[in-house]
UniProtKB/TrEMBL annotation:
<keyword id="KW-1133">Transmembrane helix</keyword>
<comment type="similarity">
    <text>Belongs to the UPF0410 family.</text>
</comment>
<dbReference type="InterPro" id="IPR007341">
    <property type="entry name" value="Transgly_assoc"/>
</dbReference>
<keyword id="KW-0812">Transmembrane</keyword>
<feature type="transmembrane region" description="Helical">
    <location>
        <begin position="35"/>
        <end position="57"/>
    </location>
</feature>
<feature type="transmembrane region" description="Helical">
    <location>
        <begin position="63"/>
        <end position="82"/>
    </location>
</feature>
<keyword id="KW-1003">Cell membrane</keyword>
<dbReference type="Pfam" id="PF04226">
    <property type="entry name" value="Transgly_assoc"/>
</dbReference>
<feature type="transmembrane region" description="Helical">
    <location>
        <begin position="6"/>
        <end position="23"/>
    </location>
</feature>
<dbReference type="GO" id="GO:0005886">
    <property type="term" value="C:plasma membrane"/>
</dbReference>
<keyword id="KW-0472">Membrane</keyword>
<protein>
    <recommendedName>
        <fullName>GlsB/YeaQ/YmgE family stress response membrane protein</fullName>
    </recommendedName>
</protein>
Amino acid sequence: MLDNIADFTAWPILTGILIGYIANHIMSGEGKGCCMNLIIGIAGSYAGTLISHLLNIELFGKGYLTNFVFCVVGAVGVLWMWKKLFD
């Protein structure tokens, strides 16, 4: 049972850090650290899901790569809005 819990919590954290890292490098060319990448990755995942719903694209069952691309696009959008509002 603990193996399933570890898989359930480890993959979202690792993918969130990776999504934030990729989005930071797309937007600014530099990293912001693991914690900030995780926050950006999580926010980008929600934003990517929202974008897919607005475009009427069903992500369930489309594969990991499609979900990952939408999450990165969402994270780039979050970073773009952050820069417009606070920079």
